[in-house]
């Protein structure tokens, strides 16, 4: 099962690379065309914006899995194992609540977005903002899985250290400051 999960996240990382590359290529080609030929591709501006939205929300799920989001590590670092576990439980409960609200908001907004069309491509805006389903559901699933492992005592010391920011190398800590 873990291999399938790792493969899924590897596919997401490749998708992020493809979307970022597509954004960069479209913007670069458009800039060159504007300066060299005094024209441009209107579709590239629109698609680059949509790719950026998708990169942001897919990246949020991948980053959440890797414990890469901001945290108050200063507080958690001074706590013992039990205090850290309590903080992890509370953190995951808050994340589940916020992500569920985000998913529900996307659901409620979908009929409005689905009826709106993009000005250049004519795509339904539901395709653009529908990424909220993936992002909300992805974070809920990850947080629920972590919460179950926390409550059943199957959390590893490595995960607790990652939550407290103690797994970083000196180079990674220097990048943060």
| Mean pLDDT across all amino acids | 90
Principal-axis shape: globular
Gyration radius over CA: 20 Å
Q: Work out the count of structural domains.
A: 1
Low-confidence stretches: none
How far apart are the termini? 37 Å
* Number of continuous helical runs: 8
Question: Which percent range fits the helix content?
Answer: over 70%
How would you spell out the order of helices and strands? HHHHHHHH
- Largest beta sheet, briefly? none
SS-based structural class? Answer: mainly alpha
Work out the number of β strands.
0
Strand content: under 5%
Protein model, in words:
It is a multi-pass membrane protein. It holds the Pfam family DctQ. It is found in: Cell inner membrane. Residues 23-152 form the Tripartite ATP-independent periplasmic transporters DctQ component domain. This protein is mostly helical and 177 residues long. The chain has one domain (2-176). The chain is 79% helix and 0% strand. It has helices spanning 2-37, 42-65, 73-77, 81-115, 125-129, 131-151, 157-163, 170-176. It is globular.
Compact description:
With 177 residues, this protein is mostly helical. It has eight helices and no strands.
Defining key terms:
mainly alpha, 0% strand, 177 residues, DctQ
Q: How are the SSEs ordered, and which strands pair?
A:
Layout: H1 2-37, H2 42-65, H3 73-77, H4 81-115, H5 125-129, H6 131-151, H7 157-163, H8 170-176
Protein name: TRAP transporter small permease protein
GO biological process, one term: C4-dicarboxylate transport
Family: Belongs to the TRAP transporter small permease family.
């Amino acid at each position: 099962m873990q291999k399938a999960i790792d493969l899924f996240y590897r596919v997401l990382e490749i998708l992020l690379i493809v979307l970022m590359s597509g954004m960069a290529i479209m913007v670069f080609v458009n800039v060159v065309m504007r300066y060299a030929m005094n024209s441009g591709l209107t579709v590239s501006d629109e698609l680059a914006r949509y790719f950026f939205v998708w990169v942001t929300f897919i990246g949020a799920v991948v980053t959440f899995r890797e414990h890469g989001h901001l945290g108050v590590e200063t507080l958690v670092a001074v706590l013992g194992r039990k205090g850290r576990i309590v903080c992890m439980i509370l953190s995951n409960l808050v994340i589940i609540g916020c992500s569920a609200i985000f998913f529900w908001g996307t659901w409620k907004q979908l009929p409005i977005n689905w009826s709106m069309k993009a000005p250049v491509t004519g795509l339904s805006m539901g395709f653009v903002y529908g990424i909220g389903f993936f992002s909300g559901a992805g974070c809920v699933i990850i947080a629920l899985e972590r919460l179950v492992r926390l409550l059943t005592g199957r959390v590893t010391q490595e995960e607790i250290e990652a939550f407290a920011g103690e797994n970083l190398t000196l180079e990674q800590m220097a990048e943060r400051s």
